[in-house]
Design goal:
This protein has helices at residues 15-24, 36-43, 93-110, 144-149, 153-163, 176-188, 196-205, 249-263, 279-286, 317-325, 328-339; strands spanning 5-9, 48-55, 58-70, 74-79, 89-90, 114-117, 128-139, 167-172, 210-217, 220-230, 233-241, 268-275, 291-300. Strands 1, 2, 3, 4, 5, 6, 7, 8, 9, 10, 11, 12 and 13 form a 13-stranded mixed β-sheet that branches. With 343 residues, the chain is α+β, with helices and mostly antiparallel strands. The chain is 35% helix and 30% strand.
């Protein structure tokens, strides 16, 4: 260490050096990029505090935070809503310490119920963990046959059938078709849909590393996925489709994305997070991805316990069943004001 480490909030002129640090820090993820500030504020309408630690004029740690305040789901400081990863990314322990202190002081000042870091590292002394989600990541090859060989035999047979079923992929310049397919998919699950504005801000803010891929058969759009590229990784982030997409279109979608990304230099496929015991969890395992626990770290501030705001909570079972019965158009109007608290 050459001197004192100070903490500051990211200003408009800091985004380039913030992202330069994120690109170079092994702990950082796509969810640490500075553009998430605009996504969370404009797309999700949550206030943010993007802290960075600096020594001798150089950033040595970052911590993006947002405040989520809801009468239904509680009051929290989270790093970061709408993100599967987050928390502190730092190059040394002093930076990590001062950023954690800044977050804890802000949580007290804002009267938050709890502070949550969606970190891939840990544990943190004095923090609890939430063993709810798992992530699925594995290397991919520029050779499609090598990728196919890495898929277990049963799923490999499903893939071969999908490859020969006449599906084809198109890359869209806007989110219109994606949103229609995604909204129908989450409605079948009984989940409120995010507003389309969220995806438009994502696409605009991360232009150059975002792709919207739509899968069609005989001209009919069946499924779609919004993906991000970060370093040598491809991250299919939001995906969905019609009920008919379960007959091969979804499989073809991820298969075509995987191989196209590998041909463009990606070497790691990040299949995203899923909850243990869900269909999505089983689906990703069937592809041969090993689940890796995401033990999110939390610190209670004003709350007595962590809220269980996930669909697995039995208290939401009746609401989920009722939501599925709503007409899709009505669910799409009512969903965004609720969904922004569930990211």
């Amino acid at each position: 260490m050459n001197g004192a480490v100070r903490v500051a909030l990211m200003a408009s002129g800091d985004s380039s050096r913030w992202d330069a640090f994120v690109d170079s820090c092994s702990e950082a993820t796509f969810c640490h990029r500075s553009g998430w500030q605009r996504v969370v504020e404009e797309g999700g309408r949550h206030p943010t505090w993007f802290f960075y630690a600096e020594e001798a004029g150089r950033i040595c740690g970052v911590l993006p935070l947002a405040e989520v305040r809801s009468r239904l789901f509680g009051h929290a400081l989270v790093s970061l809503p709408f993100c599967v990863y987050g928390g502190i990314a730092a190059s040394n322990e002093q930076a990590r310490s001062v950023l954690r202190t800044a977050a804890e002081e802000l949580a007290e000042e804002r009267g938050a119920g709890y502070l949550e870091f969606r970190t891939t590292t840990g544990p943190i002394d004095g923090y609890g963990t939430r063993d709810l989600y798992y992530t699925f990541r594995r290397p991919i090859s520029a050779d499609p046959e090598a990728n196919l060989a890495a898929v277990p035999r049963k799923q490999r047979a499903v893939l071969r059938k999908a490859i020969g079923a006449g599906f084809h992929a198109e890359v869209d310049a806007d989110s219109r078709r994606f949103y229609q397919l995604y909204a129908e998919s989450v409605h079948r699950l009984g989940t409120p849909v995010f507003g389309r504005r969220l995806f438009e801000v994502m696409r605009d803010e991360f232009r150059g590393c975002t792709e919207i891929r739509v899968i069609l058969q005989k001209g009919r759009p069946l499924s779609a996925v919004l993906s991000f590229r970060f370093r040598d990784q491809i991250l299919p982030y939001y995906g969905g489709g019609l009920e008919a997409a379960r007959n091969g279109a979804n499989d073809f979608m991820y298969w075509s994305l995987m191989n196209d990304a590998a041909a463009r230099g990606c070497t790691l496929f990040d299949f995203g997070r899923s909850k243990l015991g869900t269909g999505a969890f089983a689906y990703k395992k069937n592809w041969g991805f090993a689940p890796q626990p995401l033990a999110y770290q939390h610190r209670l501030v004003r709350a007595d316990s962590m809220p269980e705001t996930n669909p697995s909570n039995p208290r939401y079972a009746l609401l989920i069943r009722g939501w599925k019965l709503l007409p899709l158009a009505l669910a799409n109007r009512l969903g965004p004001p609720l969904a922004r608290y569930l990211g």
